[in-house]
Amino acid sequence: MSHLGNPSERESLLGEDEREHESNYFAFTPDRLAKLVDPKNPEMLREMGGPKKILEGLKVKPAVGLSSDEGLDGTKQRQPFHLRRKCFGRNVLPEVKQQSLISLIWEAYQDKTLILLSIASIISLAVGVSEDYSSRHPEGEPRVGWVEGAAILAAVAAVVFTNAINDYQKEKQFRKLNAKKEDRSVKLIRNGKEQEISVHEINVGDILLLEPGEIVAVDGIYLSGHNLKCDESSATGESDALKKGELEAGGDPFVLSGSKVLEGVGKMVVIAVGPNSFYGKTMMALRKGGNEETPLQMKLDLLAEQIAKLGVAASLIMLITLVIKYFITASMADEFPDGESILASMISIVIQAITIIVVAVPEGLPMAVTLALAYATTQMLKDNNLVRVLSACETMGNATAVCSDKTGTLTQNKMTVVEGVLCQKRFEDQKEIPKWKNEVTQSIYDIIMQGIVVNSSAFEGKDEKGNTVFVGSKTECALLDFAKSFGVDYNQLRSNDKPVKIYPFASQRKSMTSIIKLNPSGSSHGKDSVGAEYRIHVKGASEIVLGACTHYVDAEGNAQPFNENSRLNFETLITNYASKALRTICLAYQDMSSREYQRFNDENPQLKDLVCLGIVGIQDPLRPGVVEAVEAFRKAGVRVRMITGDNIVTASAIAKNAGILKGGFATTGPEFRAKPKNEQIEIVRRLQVLARSSPEDKTLVVSHLQNLGEIVAVTGDGTNDGPALKMADVGFSMGIAGTEVAKEASAIILMDDNFNSIVKALKWGRAVNDSVRKFLQFQLTVNIVAVVLSFTSAVLSDENESILTAVQLLWVNLIMDTLAALALATEPPSEDLLNRKPTSKFASLINYRMWKMIIGQAIFQIIISMSLINIGYEVFHLDENNPRDQIVMRTLVFNTFVFLQIFNEINCRRIDDTLNVFRNIFNNHMFIIIQIVVVIGQIAIVQFGGVAFGTTPLNWYQWITTVSIGSLSLPVGLIVRLIPNFCVPESILNEDFKPEVSQEKMLWESSIGDVAKQLQVARNLKVFKAIRKAKRNSVASELH
């Protein structure tokens, strides 16, 4: 039946005032309905008249549902549900427009260093071409003036296209991955009948049917059902199953999109779809905002500006110096040059000055960064880190805080039996469980397994990834997994021992009971009394079930009556487990006769005279490697904070087990949110656990940390983690257990869901930052020496010519730089990287120790090169006036200069004061290969370069001498490192990030607090004893 009225009414609805009518036709707007679930607002639902008024306002009857022909006018011009969808939208998210390759290329080109390089290359190209074809070009020499400018442009293009194509392919692959998600079907009521339709065809007002194992696709309000429980951990972080019920009965009527039905069945009315739903709004929020510049990008931009300014300054100084020199020389000459000669000389001087700018620009720097990131991301994939955003890799290297979700990230999001005492045999962790089986008698073991399997409403099913899992209550699933770990045939046991009576779990009795008829031929042996025909299995809250027990099973498998001590032992065990935030379940049974069985009614089981089999502790356990990862972070100066939707007792216990909660502060989201901003910031400084948090709380913590100067990494797997993952400097999502929202929001996906993989990401991030710094140390040394040599030799030369030719500088500045970038960028990370604190985001890219090495090496190399220019002819017994010997001298200076760089590259493997620069050198095969390639290349250029490179072959003595001089870079590096730093302020030497409150200070404050509490308890005891003594004395005096 249609709910749109008669045809004439329908026509008026679809007329000119359709837009106005659609907002009036339904009693509620999409925004108002969406506010019911984000956050859950039962008071607002009551104000709106409850589910009944919601149904009326959406024009739907719960028994009939929507009509399939709603909105049709017989002309085929309208689609079904046209008006409804126009008002509330469809259950699809708008497709994100993919960036074109051209726009990605343009974005990649917005790097200041690349722009500076482009300007320098164009100037170099123009000057080079004009020189090649000018009258001043020597006859017989090749026209290679264009090569340097063209080569720099090629390097810029390579960097831009590499980055753009990489981003384009990653986005394409990610879209392809998302497109593979199959369109699933859901059950609902339409036209009074159950139907299956595509999840994308659900409308607001549809009556949806919920079954165990189903992932809810839309938001809704519970109407009716039986024992419906949902897992909202991926949406809200709440690890406990939430039972749904009618608003009038005080239940939770809100069913969130993204949650999973664990058990029971239900019927709900859909109130939000697509972008208006809880899941949809989270997904849409992730699409807003662009990526901010990373710390390394900001530092590189600043460096590019500084280099440009210094290059221009050096160029101007050279220009002024050469012009003054020219006119002084000209005025001292016998005849002053004519105008044409002056113009030609000025052009030559301007070209020399412009060359200085080109030499000063570190053309290999963007390539070094690109290569370091590309190599790191490739290797990180082997460590199960899929990097979606390239820059996230280097950002992670400077991370100072990791804000992690608990459920599914630190823990396995799977309730598991972790401790227990069954038949008086104890197991204290999961590794001891197999040992427990071998210690208990077979008959009692069979009874325990029978009780776990039969007395359960959980069943085997498929999860969203198609894996076979148990579906139902998390507690029951944990017990079934416990039984399955011993190889118990779950299906066989259930078919052999079918319950004759079942009393499902009820909150009033806090237990579940099943009665089976004993079958002598089946697995129901182990009766403990003659004539027993039935067995009752009970499980539930430990205090309740234990109170109904009169006996317990001892280590030999015999039933022993409870006495005061034995009962106290069980009660102490329950208290002990509770202090560890374990959910305790007591297992019990009783064999009985037919007469006793007849006394049981269908409403409530008569729980008395039970035999206690034991107690197990259930918990969502930590993932393997979490404790080690937290400790590694602590050693590396990175503070881990747990932000979860779980309760504070469980969260604090898990945080203590993981090593996160040590002297810091634990609080809840509502308490934190209620504080003024200045108090929130004070709490964040010491915060280690935030429980009962909402998505807004997570983003608030991340925001406060970022405002305090911290670089924040956020980990999560649920829909509720999306906004914080997006806002963080680096977002990590789980590749296996993570929702699509979490993956979409993250920069790095952990393919193995292992928290320990984040430590590997930290190591690679620090390695990338170190690689860029190593290259900078090497590159700037080369550039400073090249600029000073070009400047000085041109000023001292009669022809205003540099000692190094343009093609020689091309080899030094471009080919060697690119190869050096590859060599230094492929240094694998070592464990030493985790033994230091993170670098402050405000620290300079080139620190004091680097400047010390750059300046020290530059001074040494300049002295060596200038000495060769001035006294080289005498040292090598060459004739200064012989053109052939002049070329030999140029070649000697060039060869020495290159080998100074080759040995200095080894020196640049360390950017601290570590003396052993050869440490782990054989672990970097690429470095060794490139060094060999450069040496072979240099030999080829010198011996066979001839006219193109302006070189001439050297003899063995000249080779040994120049290589030996070049090797002096290593001992000079050692001497520079040994220069004491005692006169340098600590603020310059120490570039570590300094947290507002250190870990040591928090531990000290916590210890003082613990002592104060103990002293208070001692004082209270003294006061109590004094009062009691005074009362005794008073009574004694009255008796006398």
Descriptive account of the structure:
It is an enzyme of class 7 (translocase). 52% of the residues lie in helices and 14% in strands. The chain is built from 40 helices and 26 strands. Helix 9 (145-179) runs parallel beside helix 32. The radius of gyration is 39 Å and the shape is elongated.
List the helices and strands and how they pair.
Layout: H1 7-13, H2 18-25, H3 30-34, H4 42-47, H5 50-57, H6 82-88, H7 101-108, H8 112-132, H9 145-179, E1 185-190, E2 193-198, E3 207-210, E4 219-231, H10 233-236, E5 242-243, E6 254-255, E7 260-272, H11 278-285, H12 295-332, H13 339-360, H14 365-382, E8 385-387, H15 391-397, E9 401-404, H16 406-410, E10 416-422, E11 425-427, H17 433-439, H18 442-454, E12 459-462, E13 468-471, H19 474-484, H20 490-496, E14 499-506, E15 511-517, E16 534-541, H21 542-547, E17 549-553, E18 559-561, H22 564-579, E19 583-592, H23 594-598, E20 610-619, H24 626-635, E21 639-643, H25 648-658, E22 665-668, H26 669-674, H27 677-686, E23 687-691, H28 695-707, E24 712-716, H29 722-727, E25 730-734, H30 740-745, E26 748-750, H31 756-796, H32 806-825, H33 848-875, H34 883-907, H35 925-944, H36 946-949, H37 956-967, H38 969-978, H39 986-989, H40 999-1039
Parallel strand pairs: 9-21, 9-24, 17-20, 21-23, 22-23, 24-25, 25-26
Antiparallel strand pairs: 1-2, 1-3, 3-7, 4-5, 4-6, 4-7, 8-26, 10-11, 10-20, 12-13, 14-15, 15-16, 16-19, 17-18, 19-20
Helix pairs in contact: 7-9, 8-9, 8-13, 9-32, 12-13, 12-31, 13-31, 14-31, 14-32, 15-31, 24-31, 31-32, 31-33, 32-35, 33-34, 33-38, 34-35, 34-37
Membrane topology: Multi-pass membrane protein
Pfam families: Cation_ATPase (PF13246), Cation_ATPase_C (PF00689), Cation_ATPase_N (PF00690), E1-E2_ATPase (PF00122)
Domain Cation-transporting P-type ATPase N-terminal: 51-124
